Amino acid sequence: MTHRAFLRWPDPRLKTPAAPVDAVDDGVRAIWNEMVEAMHVMPGVGLAAPQLGIMRRLAVVDAGDGRGVTRLANPVILHASAEMREHDEASPNLPGVSARIRRPRAVTVAYLDEDGAAREEDFVLLRATSVQHQIDHLDGRMYFDRLSRTKRDMLLRKARKCA
Prior knowledge:
3 helices, alpha+beta, two-stranded antiparallel ribbon, 163 residues, five-stranded antiparallel sheet
């Protein structure tokens, strides 16, 4: 199976909030399968549908912790821990650069699973970082939007040199 190409920053779709999924059906499952393949080819620990130009609120997370791939439709953070954690984040949409991002260490997320059932799940450590990163993509944000203006501008200048 082949997947669509990753959008390249500054494609306007990367700045656009994705549309909610009405129901989980075979079409949604096929998109998730394509996303899982793209995530593993990257390689990465998560992927949001808009990164491939699919403007739907779909994400996949696989932190390599033996829990396998979590498929999420319409994920929403219900609760975030006060304890923070820093992690280097990057994106195939802006290759060649990364930045240390500070996010809550744990989050509780509500979503529809691959059967279309409503679920709530606690994500911690790398899984928490990844799911928050993917939800940012679904909201039309990139990880570097969380940086100060100066650090963001430096990162984007460096990315232009890598391109």
